[in-house]
Write a structure and sequence with these properties.
The chain has one helix and no strands. The protein is an all-alpha fold.
C-alpha cells in the first residue's frame, strides 16, 4: 500500500512538473512572438529612416 501511494505521489508530482513546463513553454513562445513583432516594427522604422537619409543625400 505504501508503495502504491508513493508511486501515485511521484506520478502526481511529475504531472504537475510537466504541466508547469508546458505553461512555461507557452509563455516563452508568446514572449518570443511579441519580441519578433517589435523587432519587425523596429526594422521597418530603420529602413524608412535609411530611405529618408538616402533621398536627402541625393537631392
Amino acid at each position: 500500500m505504501v508503495f502504491s501511494e508513493s508511486r501515485l505521489s511521484c506520478e502526481q508530482r511529475l504531472s504537475r512538473q510537466l504541466h508547469s513546463l508546458s505553461e512555461l513553454s507557452e509563455f516563452l513562445t508568446l514572449r518570443i512572438l511579441e519580441i519578433e513583432e517589435k523587432l519587425g516594427t523596429f526594422e521597418k522604422i530603420l529602413a524608412n529612416k535609411d530611405d529618408d537619409t538616402e533621398s536627402i543625400v541625393h537631392d
